[in-house]
Write a structure and sequence with these properties.
2 domains, single chain, Enolase-like, domain 1, alpha/beta, 17% strand, TIM Barrel
């Protein structure tokens, strides 16, 4: 059976140049989200990719520098991606090294979209896969002090919503019981790999016990298996453990303390088209489930993640809800889960 990347690598792509478009929006985690759309042009077509680097200073530096790289010419898609990998895509060093992966994926996804649009074919046709309805969860923090209305208010308007929540030490027994009573929590994220961020959560054995008991069927993301006390608490729940923040590669999956049943495969965090395809193929061979994760995309990046989910992991708790669910003021008329397949007639786009 051919590898996934081999089905894409030889696609021809003609490039004249590219432009950059800045996006900005206030989102539900209480910060201003900046992103940048790369518009890659050639042969009368345009391919798009979205840069999801978190630090606004890096986004603004990219936008101010403009299109400084010469990508013009005729390429095979695999050759173009390899060329992009050799470029320094940051006008100034990024705030975080992982951001280099995010930006590589931006240009790779734009190149994939352009190659497919020039070929007049959608991604699923080239891969020989049929898009499926995509299940999704809405990822939320409840604030400090925690406000249950973040969940119940959304359920009042969208009763079938499912959630991925970030427990914090301020979650007491009463709050946890009320959350459990909604029956809407599919996964909990303990954020044990974050330090120096607004979402840090110190390892708290009492919180682990409280949450694991209240949500016996929920996936448990990024729990601390390194601390002896929490490792002992988590041991009986190994089949529910899943991983997000530490997953940048196949090697990261293989290095986990326990072989997972499920991992979060974020295209931008994997950091390249070939690497992403290899990761999908590896998980399929090893019997490891996958789900997608968003990074507060404001433009085409969210739809591209939904497209990939529809092809590789449609039935898992994909953290890629339509972007309206991330807005500070929740709009009316948002689609419910599962999302009906909406691939564009050509390209790497979800309409």
């Amino acid at each position: 059976m051919p590898s996934t990347f081999s089905l894409l690598a030889d696609l021809p792509v003609d490039i004249d140049g590219y432009t950059l478009e800045g996006l900005r929006r206030e989102v539900t985690s209480g910060f201003t989200r900046d992103s940048t759309v790369v518009h890659l042009r050639g042969g009368g077509e345009e391919g798009v990719g979205e840069d999801v680097v978190y630090d606004s200073v890096d986004q603004l530096a990219l936008q101010e520098a403009g299109a400084v790289h010469d990508l013009s010419g005729t390429w095979a898609l695999g050759e173009l991606c390899a060329h992009i990998d050799g470029l320094d895509l940051f006008p100034t060093p990024p705030e975080r090294d992982v951001s280099r992966r995010y930006r590589r994926w931006t240009f790779h996804s734009a190149a994939l979209d352009l190659a497919l649009r020039q070929a007049g074919r959608p991604l699923h046709h080239v891969l020989g896969r049929e898009p499926q309805p995509v299940t999704f969860v809405v990822s939320l923090r409840l604030g400090e002090p925690p406000d249950l209305d973040a969940v119940t208010g959304r359920l009042a308007r969208y009763p079938t919503l499912r959630f991925k929540l970030d427990p914090t030490s301020s979650w007491d027994d009463a709050l946890v019981a009320e959350l459990a009573a909604t029956g809407s929590v599919d996964s909990v994220d303990f954020k044990s790999f974050y330090t120096g961020t607004v979402v840090d959560q110190a390892t708290d054995p009492a919180l682990y016990r409280r949450v694991l008991a209240a949500f016996p069927d929920a996936w448990i993301e990024d729990a601390d298996v390194g601390a002896a006390e929490t490792r002992a608490i988590l041991e009986p729940h190994r089949d529910r453990l899943t991983w997000d923040a530490p997953i940048h590669s196949i090697e990261d999956i293989e290095a986990l303390a326990w072989k997972p049943r499920m991992v979060n495969v974020k295209p931008s965090r994997i950091g390249g088209l070939e690497l992403l395809c290899e990761t999908y193929d590896y998980c399929a061979r090893e019997g490891i489930g996958a789900y997608g994760g968003g990074q507060f995309e404001l433009g085409p990046g969210r739809g591209q993640n939904q497209y990939l989910a529809s092809l590789f992991h449609p039935d898992t708790p994909n953290d890629i809800a339509p972007t309206g669910y991330n807005e500070a003021a929740l709009p009316d008329g948002l689609p419910s889960s599962p999302l009906a397949p909406e691939p564009a007639p050509a390209g790497f786009r979800w309409r």
